[in-house]
Every structure is written in C-alpha cells, then in structure tokens.
Amino acid sequence: MKAIAVIPGKANSMHLAELPKPTLDAVPGGRGVLVRLVRCGVDGTDKEINAAEYGQTPAGCDFLVTGHENFGQVEAVGPNVAEFRPGDYVVATVRRPGTSIYDRIGAYDMTTDDVYFEHGINRLHGFLTEYYVDDPEYIVKVPRALRDVGVLVEPLSVPEKGILQAYEIQRRLRVWRPRRAAVLGAGTVGLFATMILRLRGLEVTTFGLMPKPYLNSDLVEALGARYLSTRTTSLREAAPACGPFDLMYEATGFSPLAFEAMEALGKNGVLVLASVTGGDRKVEVPADKINLEFVLGNKVMVGTVNGNREHFEAAVRDLALAATEYPGWVARLLTHPVRGLENYRRLIDTLTTARDAIKVFMEIAPQGG
Ligand code: BGC
Ligand code: ZN
C-alpha cells in the first residue's frame, strides 16, 4: 500500500513510500481492527516535520509515515472485537502509552516519560496511508451523520483537552461561573476553542493577526463571538473592555503572547497555553507586575498537549452539538482538499503556502456507504 513518508532530520524529504498492508494479527488476542483511511488532515506539526524541525522514526526504520489527523472506515475486525463492525466510521487517538503512572491509567496525554510515542509524529508511523490496524482501546467511533466532518475530530480533541483541564483546575474555587473568555489565535485550534466555549455559553473574544473581514473572522462571528485583530487592537488594549477574562486559551504559536495573556487574565482566572513553540525567542516582560497580579489574583496557568480517548469522545459530542447549534459551521473549516496520496507535493505545498487555508486535508479514498 502507498504511504506518505519523510526522513526526519532531512528538510523537504516528503515522498511516496510502499508498505505492506497490515493484517489483523498485528494486535494479539484477536483484538485487531483493520481500518481503511478515508481522509487525513495536516497541520503545523506536519509542516515542522517536513522542515526537519520535529519528528522521529520508529525504531529500526529510516523513515516516518506522517499524518495524525485521521479518519477512516472499519474494514474488518478480529474475532474478539465487539466494539466495532465493518462499515463503522472511526478516528484513532494519536499518542500511545509509555510507562509512567499516567500512561497506565489511560492518560497517556499526561505522560511524564521523556520519550513519547505519537502516530505520524514521534516513533510511530502515521495515517497518510491506506490502512492501519489497531486495538479498539485507541479507536473512537464517529456517528455516520458526522462523517463529512470526522477528519476534524483529532484537531478538535486538542482544545477539548485544554478546556476540560481548565474546568478541572477551577474546581479549586468551589464555585466558578466563567463569563468572559479570550482565545488567542484564529487558526483551526483557535476557531475550535471559540466553538467549545460558545457551546458552553461564554462570551468569547477571539484575537487573530489579520484584520477582518476574512473567512476566519466570519467564522468567529458566526458563533456569536467577537473577532479582534491584534494589528489594530492589542490584547492589552482590549482587556479592559472585553474582560476581565475568566479563561484564556493561547493558540497562536507565538510565545511572547503567553506573557501578554498573563497580564490580561482576570482574578481567579485560568490561562491555558497550547502553542508548541519550537524556536528560542526571548522577550523582556514586566516580571514584578505579572507575578504580583498572579499572586494577589489567585490566577493559574496550565500547559496542555495532545488528548486521550476521553477528549476524542468529547470532540465527537461537540461536533454533534455544533451541528444543531451552528449548522454547517464545522464543514466551512474544510477549506483545502487534496485528492490522492500520490499528490503529496500538492498537500505540503498547500499547507506551506495557502494563506487562506484553515484545514488542508488529503482525500485518501472515497467513503463507503
Ligand atoms: C498533535 C498532538 C501532539 C502534538 C505534539 C499536535 O499537532 O495534534 O496530538 O501531541 O502535536 O506532538
Ligand atoms: Zn496536530
């Protein structure tokens, strides 16, 4: 079968590879699920992997099959699989457990291991291919009615985890009635964070770089949230009128904004940091002021990465909720399809150059009935 692979450490190495089709017995105990991939999205992580800034090969292999935003259809199941049937639409989680205590309770997204395993990213082959076989433990069912947007489950699972963590943390307050939220970044993750918070009834201000109107600002406003361009209004300027912010979600990929966000966070507020920033940027910050206000305001800040089964399931539920609350909204994120694994060049070129893209994704195979 065909697969899109890279050679980690070698820039622009994306190429087409040929791999044997996996078989059900790849999972012991008759528990294999064979999935035919229908679509696979790409994001900044894939861009970094192709630029040789990130990514590791599986042990004993000199290439890595990329792609983690998977969506597929079950083709066959082992004799001891009761959870799925052929024809079911499914998404697999990205990370696989290591050895820490968190890994052992299914919270592999919270691993404390230094070495971690992520399909299509780190030490495990990904989903820009035709088939995979996995354990039902790592596969989440997507209702048929959501199949057109199923490829967005994985990117949605990431802010689902971040926001769930924020709510968990805020149980410290005994009573928490968040009213105003700020989302920094209006890319896929920022848009989804806005959606999740709007579905929970918060008043949301989403900050993007570009001045409105454009598709992303239209999408923010279609959710009943406020869009502000940081070119015209800085976070600092906006905070007095749009805040105080009870919850802030940082997803711009630009680390200095994390420190600006610390200044704009309201008393008892929670700031979620979600940008994977590979660089080594340095900034000067008003350290005494930020520290003092954090202390006197009982504020918290939390980092978040990845997501486990629970967050993928939350993503599926919120896609269903969004379909009733904001019909057609989610599908508008699917801006740039590319058809056929052999067109990997177009996939990566679109990902790196299309400035108006929200979600670039590969149509691997037509979805069956
Ligand atoms: C993926 C996550 C992953 C993170 C860090 C993101 O693009 O969606 O699953 O944990 O990259 O590797
Ligand atoms: Zn990702």
Label this structure with key terms.
369 residues; alpha/beta; Quinone Oxidoreductase, Chain A, domain 1; Rossmann fold; 2 domains; six-stranded parallel β-sheet; binds beta-D-glucopyranose; binds zinc ion
Approximate helicity band: 25-40%
The helix tally amounts to 10
Low-confidence stretches: none
Number of domains: 2
Under CATH at level 1, the class of the largest domain stands as Alpha Beta
Q: Characterize the biggest β-sheet.
A: 7 strands, mixed
Q: Can you identify the CATH superfamily of the largest domain?
A: Medium-chain alcohol dehydrogenases, catalytic domain
Report the radius of gyration as a whole number of Å.
21 Å
Q: Which secondary-structure class do the elements indicate? A: alpha/beta
Distance between the termini: 22 Å
What's the overall geometry?
globular
Bound molecules: beta-D-glucopyranose, zinc ion
% residues in beta strands? 15-25%
Would you identify the CATH architecture of the largest domain?
Alpha-Beta Complex
CATH topology of the largest domain: Quinone Oxidoreductase, Chain A, domain 1
Mean pLDDT: 97
Number of strands: 19
Could you give the order of the helices and strands?
EEEHEEEEHEEEEHEHEHEHEHEHEHEHE
Q: What does this 3D model show about the protein?
A:
One of its GO terms (molecular function) is zinc ion binding. Its cofactor is Zn(2+). This is Glucose dehydrogenase. By secondary structure, the protein is of the alpha/beta class. It folds into two domains: 2-149 and 334-363, Alpha-Beta Complex (Quinone Oxidoreductase, Chain A, domain 1), CATH 3.90.180; 157-303, NAD(P)-binding Rossmann-like Domain (Rossmann fold). It is 28% helix and 25% strand. The chain contains ten helices and 19 strands. The strands form four sheets. Strands 3, 5, 6, 10, 11, 18 and 19 form a seven-stranded mixed beta sheet that branches. Helix 3 packs across helix 4 and helix 6 runs parallel beside helix 7 (256-264). The radius of gyration is 21 Å and the shape is globular. It starts with a strand and ends in a 6-residue tail after the last strand. The model has no long low-confidence stretch (mean pLDDT 97). It binds beta-D-glucopyranose and zinc ion (ZN). Residues 43, 45, 68, 94, 118, 121, 158, 276, 305-306 line the site of beta-D-glucopyranose. Zinc ion (ZN) is lined by residues 43, 45, 68.
